[in-house]
Amino acid sequence: MGLIGTLFKNWFGTTQATAGVSGSGEIPHAKHKIPYEVIRVQPTPNPDAFQFTLNMPVIGEGTRTFESPEDAKGDPFAEQLFQLFGVQNVFLKENFVTVTKSPSVGWHTLLERINDIIEEFLVFQQVPDHAKALTPAEDPLADFKKEDFGTMSAEQKGRVIEAILDKAIRPALSNDGGGLDVLGIEGNVVKIHYQGACGSCPSSTTGTLLYIENFLRENVHSDLEVRAN
Question: What is the per-residue DSSP string for 11-60?
């Protein structure tokens, strides 16, 4: 019994026959076979998102998000996933892929198909969502003082907040199959966009958002406000 078969047995009390995307039940053969292998499949705090851990990195740095079939155009892997009824979001980071579905669709119709598409069509993502500019080797937090935040330039504020999120927030979100992107800083308002499993998680706009805001207030500036897009 394979990985997905075992998962089905543990979760649903039965196994699921291998199913493909096409009407014949077989996934079309990919032009370039990439040796990606799903080594772990696990639920996330979001009941509508599962995390698929791979045997090697799927992206060099940053993240890659597909939020609609339009976003997926031109990427055979993402296009195949969005052909599955109910798939709403695909998020890639480090060595995992998180797929978020509609609440009206059961996982028993999707898990094995997603697994097959990952192993058949996934290729290394060369370009992340936002290419990061080259930054100095110095840690922006090394000489940071909270009382200086108000007089910093927008660029300096952004570097400090990104560094704080990288060290203390993003690793935890990543463990749950998600992430966040900073859209911008306007005055004392930090605008963020959740990625992956965090996007539709019930706690993302309540407990998680409050935790992030309180953490930034404690470690960066007491008047900061965090808003999720």
Answer: HHSS------SSTTS-PPPPSS-----EEEEEE-SSTTEEEEEESS-SBS
Task: Compute the half-sphere exposure of residue 167: CA atoms within 13 Å on the CB side of its CA.
Answer: 13
As a whole number of angstroms, the distance between CA 27 and CA 112 comes to 11
Band of residue 139 on the pLDDT scale cut at 50, 70, 90: confident
As a residue count, the chain comes to 229
- List the domains of the chain with CATH numbers: 3-121 (3.30.1370.70), 146-228 (3.30.300.130)
Partners of 184 in beta bridges: 191
- C-alpha distances in Å from residue 176, one per residue of 114, 134, 145: 18, 28, 31
Query: pTM to 2 decimals?
Result: 0.71
pLDDT in tens, 66-90: 999 999 999 999 999 999 999 999 9
Question: What does the block give as tokens for 90?
Answer: 């695909």
